[in-house]
Design a protein that fits this description.
single chain; four-stranded antiparallel β-sheet; 28% strand; elongated
């Protein structure tokens, strides 16, 4: 059995008395696209910076390719493509010069054909100076920098930030191609439909703790079910006040429920009112993510 590409053991970072992350244990396998989810301040960027040996942990261990990130960080980073959430560029440097500089730091010889394909697919002119680029074009430079060496591991922090929808789709295609090539992606994004589209598994981090790691399909089926019951007779407002069941709305003869437990009991309660139709609309990753934070898109509290 091969070692995980990314692995942490009780990883903790403290900034003085303030918590960054605490006892984070995660494992990312080769060829996997792993989504890392959490709001600002949850610990996503801190975790990434430890993996890249930008900051040192207060406790625990981080490993990439089976090697200690803090002891062998220089060699590890030669095999990583990284796109930070906040990209810093040299204003007077031309795009191509910047990419050449990064390639030399990684001791890599760029594949001119692949590089040209990236420019064409992202609609990027690398001959211009950084100060002439829009925000979106600066982001494209960062994307090219991350992908151009065909690294064994990509760490992407909000990769589609500032991009128009067509280019966002191109980035998702590039991520999928990396996976098909057997390489690995550590993918952090606030755009949850993107995560749902490309990731195999996700880890949800809250207040510095990794609270859930699960495959996408399992997460969307196990967390809760949405149930729309169309009934001949309208039941009393408290008919479905059951443990593990939340009534989210009513529309004419249809009762809308979120069910975490007791599905058979829900059906038993509904039967005397004459069930004429049952619909189970899909639950999105965004709704599940917000449920872990006790919030719903419309601002109503909601407990997972």
């Amino acid at each position: 059995m091969t070692n995980p590409v990314v692995e942490t053991h009780n990883l903790s970072v403290y900034y003085g008395r303030h918590r960054g992350i605490e006892d984070v244990n995660l494992s990312v396998e080769q060829g996997e696209v792993f989504g890392f989810l959490g709001p600002n301040g949850a610990g996503k960027t801190t975790t990434q910076r430890v993996l890249l040996d930008v900051i040192h942990p207060s406790g625990g261990q981080a490993m990439i390719f089976g090697r200690d990130c803090q002891k062998e960080g220089v060699d590890i980073r030669k095999r990583i493509g990284y796109l930070p959430g906040e990209l810093s560029l040299y204003r007077n440097m031309k795009g191509m010069a910047f990419l050449d500089m990064l390639a030399s730091l990684h001791e890599k010889v760029l594949d001119p054909t692949y590089l040209r394909q990236l420019f064409e697919r992202l609609d990027l002119d690398p001959s211009r100076r950084m100060k002439e680029y829009s925000r979106g074009n600066k982001q494209k430079i960062g994307i090219v920098a991350a992908f151009m060496n065909k690294p064994d591991l990509l760490i992407l922090d909000e990769p589609t930030s500032g991009l128009d929808p067509l280019v966002q789709q191109t980035v998702m295609e590039l991520v999928q191609e990396v996976k098909e090539d057997g390489r690995t992606v550590f993918f952090s994004s606030h755009i949850l439909p993107e995560v749902q589209a490309v990731c195999d598994r996700v880890g949800i981090i809250r207040e510095g703790h990794l609270i859930k790691t699960e495959r996408i399909e399992a997460l969307t089926t196990q967390s809760f079910k949405r149930l729309h019951l169309t009934l001949e007779t309208i039941p009393p407002t408290d008919a479905f006040a059951l443990e593990g069941v939340t009534e989210t709305g009513r529309d004419d003869h249809t009762i809308m429920l979120e069910v975490r437990d007791g599905l058979s009991q829900v059906i038993e309660v509904a039967m005397p009112f004459g069930i004429t139709d049952i619909d189970t609309p899909p639950v999105t990753l965004e709704e599940i993510f917000l449920a872990f934070y006790d919030r719903k898109p419309n601002g109503v509290n909601h407990h997972a």
